[in-house]
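dumping the sequnces here before i forget
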Amino acid sequence: MGVISAGTTLLDAGALDSDVATGKMTLIKTLTASNSANLSFVHGASSVIFDGTYDSYVFKFIDIHPETDDAKLMVNFRDGGTAYDAPKTTNFYRAQHGENGSNGQQGYRTDDDLANSTAVQPLTMDIGNGNDESASGEMTIFNPSSTTFTKHFCATSSALYSGNFAMQSFAAGTINVTAAVDGVQFTMESGNFNGVIKLYGIGA
Amino acid sequence: MAIISNATTILDAGAFSASLGSMVHIKTLTASSSGTLSFVNGASSVVLDDTYPIYKFLLFNIHPGGSSELTFNASDDGSSHAYDITKTTTHHYTVHGESGGSGNQYYVQAEDLAQSTAFQHLMGGTQIGTANSDSHSGELTIFNPSSTTFMKHFTSRTQYISSSSQKYQYDAYQAGYFNTTAALTAFQFKMNSGNMDTGKIKLYGIKDS
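..and the predicted 3d for all of it:
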């Protein structure tokens, strides 16, 4: 049975009509950290999709709150094995400004980039662990399932540093493998963390 | 006919009342040794008008035929599609080599535009690598292109590996405005020399309600 409203077919033959505009940003998985060492999104595990189903994937990290004062949120990728150790070349810069009006500045951070390294990549600057301190932001990864090209990612975040600074960060890079990337893991620079990370797929 | 479930109106008056998501896919164009990829309102199912207040292009693995840079421009003439809108833009990037050198941030005066009709570069001042695994990805957002009151703003951020032997990783940022109050009805992407061997560009509309 079709559903026709005001002369417009909206539903028929078990599906939305093709003229009905539907959103293409699909929530795949929400993970919640509670004094957790890591949050891992692995294709095929716990209903996570991270393959060629979508051309790009967006992670939203919301109120990441470290147990250890002034720790950065970090990310790494796995490329076929079980280890999160894909080689990456990355860039990182940040802008900052204090609550007291001081130290408004921006600059590139050589301490937070990687040169074809398997190490974890910072996504934020230092996050304070005061009760109201956290970081939020997002990271996009393009075509992670490609077996032809290396993979690009970029992230933007805002963090509250324990010294009462607003810290805006811009991280990006190339995952230097042609194997499919099938897992993403978030950790802290040190210690455990709390917060929510959501994975979305961007469809065609 | 309305459909109401548990006191919530799901659909009525020829449209869904329930949210079906706000990021709507409009069109995918795939390059295959292509000179240009063009999105023209009203052609080939492309919508680029006041249907959406924001449009987003996602760029996937643009791989050039030879060392070159990806560029874009817009048209406001509605018919002949001359891609020659006057723009004032900014352009900066961060860069870092695979060998660990040159980690830094730069503004690129050579690739910003000052009231120019030229195509805007979407890269950081060097060309995309041409190795089989090299490509260029990112996104470009256009705000309210159909306005006939305001100029039109855009922002973009893209990533790529350069063609140099150092294999520099670039994170490039561009922004600016199309200095016209005419509606923009088409956008075109092309390399500054040669063709796009492969790659995809997807156009999405972002709903405001």
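Residues 70 and 191 of chain B are 4 Å apart (CA to CA).
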